[in-house]
Amino acid sequence: MYTAAPHRTHTHRTRITANLTRGAIATAVAVALAVGGGVAAQSTVPPAATPGAAAVVAPSMPSFADVAERVSPAVVNVTVVAQGAPDQATGSEGLPEGVPMEEFFKRFFEQPGGPHGRPGNHRTEGAGSGFVIDPTGLVVTNNHVVDGANEITVTLNDGTKHKAKVLGRDEKTDLALLKIEVGHPLPAVDLTESKSARVGDWVLAVGNPFGLGGTVTAGIVSARGRDIHSGPYDDYIQIDAPINRGNSGGPLFDAYGRVIGVNTAIYSPTGGSVGIGFAIPAETVKTVVAQLRAEGRVERGWLGVQIQPVTEEIAAALGLPGTAGVLVADVLPDGPAAGTELKAGDVILKVGGQGIKDYKELPRLIAATKAGTEVTLELVRAGKPETVKVKVGAMPGNESLAKNGGPAGDEQAKAQLGLRLAPLTPELRRQLDLTPGSRGVYVSQVQPGSPAEEAGITAGCLISMVGGAPVSTPAQVSEAIRAAAATKRSAVMLRVEKDGRPMFIAVPFAA
């Protein structure tokens, strides 16, 4: 039903082409070369099909052949083997299931072997991508590619395979640094600044989709600064270059063959590429990799506050002229800001003189600040400007977070019932459209075939009581489950809120 319009377009183009002079054609080719930004553009005039017919000029198209040939030797395949790792690469690691943005965060990590996500001692194989950043054998990839792996093998462009060790990993940015010993210098690529990449610029993705080996796809930068709710430091480059499972950890090149990002996630309701991919900016990669190389870990600054955005309603209620800034929802009792003049209800407008337009900017600024540094916070309190000085602390690791009910505090819930839990933060309440008074612990994942799944618990539920005791952190849930198991009972009673309705559910312990 749409054949008429293309036909008219084709006829119109033919008439225009027939009137082009040789000089005009040369000019068109020169313009195409200039627009290509260093990518070769080609235009040919094939002979007319029949005598007397007008010759049609083929459109000037960029060629990435030279760039691909130059950078491909530095791109590697990363294959892993994990034993008894039911949670590895579930497809949306790091993001609670059921939240409104979950469909955005599909990490494309190819797993050809093993039943995914099922408890038990099974062998899981997976494949991702990476790239060499130093001739001595330093390889960058995604953390979720190697997380939980017992064996890691890097396959170079020449087909040789090498065992790799992990020098360091960072879950919050989903980056990992590997080391392989080859015995000779390797082709390497440079990390550049991604800030110069504008929306509409050509990009090239190279990786290992579906375990096929080196594959090159091209597209453009679709957007900058994307927040896909995967963590507090989201600042993704959105691209439309086709990328699929197995591309995780592969490099994103600009038209000059410089790495401007690491391909990490795709928007995919079906699991396949639909033309919306996300890459970690090179600036983030450079900072994280430098720390992983030197220390094996990443140290971030921390204020110890819970924050939320300033909405139009909040701005109106507080008498603010706009929505710039960050609202302090709570000051953690054991955090660096505890004991300072910073209070819940304050709206932070500037940190060290730098304005805060979006609430996501505050965690990034503080994380980039060295622990022990004193920063000046300019804020509004009860309609009046205030200045507060706070000494930035070091962000606690998973062990410390577990003591306070952080993400690592759900070991017993995971082992005994098959539950992955997350604290019910103000941000998560907002995402789930829950009231500020909602209490409990959020169920982020339920392992298939686990006792919790068989009892009817699903991701997105809230657990507010365990065995009659109220709970508000994952650590409290785990401790209550441990206590119940110690009594030799066959099951534990949970008060679960599902679809807004509370109910008690008896969940048997795993055998």
What do these coordinates show?
The protein has 511 residues and is of the alpha+beta class. The chain has four domains: 60 residues, no CATH class; 236 residues, Beta Barrel (Thrombin, subunit H), CATH 2.40.10; 94 residues, PDZ domain (Pdz3 Domain, Roll), CATH 2.30.42.10; 110 residues, Pdz3 Domain. Helices cover 20% and strands 33% of the residues. It contains twelve helices and 29 strands. The strands form six sheets. It has a six-stranded antiparallel barrel. A six-stranded antiparallel β-barrel has the order 10-11-12-15-14-13. Helix 9 packs across helix 12. The longest helix is centred in the N-terminal third of the chain and has 15 residues. The protein is globular. The N terminus is likely disordered.
Highest-level CATH class of the largest domain? Mainly Beta
Strand content: 25-35%
* Mean pLDDT reading: 77
Radius of gyration: 27 Å
Distance between the termini: 61 Å
The main sheet comes to:
6 strands, antiparallel, barrel
> Helix/strand-derived class?
alpha+beta
How large is the count of helical segments? 12
CATH-derived architecture of the largest domain:
Beta Barrel
- Estimate the helix proportion, in percent: 10-25%
Assign an overall shape: globular
Strands across the major sheet, in which order? 3-5-6-9-8-7
Looking at the structure, the CATH topology of the largest domain is Thrombin, subunit H
Unreliable residue stretches: 1-38, 85-120, 398-408
Total strands: 29
